[in-house]
Amino acid sequence: MSDRVAAGGEPKPTDINKTVPFRGRGFNPQPLGVIAPVVFVGLIAFWEVGSQTGFISDLVLPAPSEAFEAFLQLLETGMFWKHLSASLQRLVIGWICGTVLGVIAGMAIGLFSLARAALAPLVSAIFPIPKIALLPLFIIWFGIGEGSKVATILFGTFFPTVISTYGGVDNVDRNLIRMGQSFGLSWSSIVRKIILPGALPAILSGFRISASIAIILLVAAEMIGAEFGIGAYILLAGSLFATDQLIAGVAMLSVLGLCFAWLIGRAEKYFLDWRA
Question: What CATH number does domain 65-275 carry, 1.10.10.10, 1.10.3720.10, 2.30.30.140, 2.60.40.790?
Fold first, then answer.
């Protein structure tokens, strides 16, 4: 018998007053903000040292310092803002329109049997088609200007948003829906207070995927008939074999993706604080 129990079998007062640690946090990842900068700086330092020592050939991969100089030249000439503003305009319009339409269609498929029977097979049939392959068709429909580029991004972000939305609706706990019905909640209240919050984690995860797809399609669309844009800048650098400028353009796309991921992460913290 434990020495913490008295001879009469009763627990000692020190056992009664002992604080028990909370063990109900579940699998809740803790933010470690210092890790990402350390890994990033270490990778860039290894890359720079390898380039300076000749371990990494400049013909294969230019040094980060050279790419940074190319970026500074882009800033000095003022072309950076022209390329960035053109890309952001296409990206934001196409992504917002695609995600809004995707959420509407996904909610309809998840909530209505008629919409599921009509739209779900169509989404499954069109989603695997590479949207870049449809770009010439969009050029025929909308012209070589902004319309075809925005349509490519919209079309590419629409389908993953639809799938993540109606998948999130399908995964909502049906016991919660039955509970709402037993308490006499209306259909609209159940959708607003139970189904939409329950599906929101999947919808926001779909936003992350669709944002990445949008950036990929943005580059592909801007490589055809675009004067300004990050994709046009990368295409010109590649045709001139200016690898330092090419790496600078790729770095801009990476930072753009990080900004989108940060914004969606802030939205997750705001809308999903009830999960903490």
Answer: 1.10.3720.10
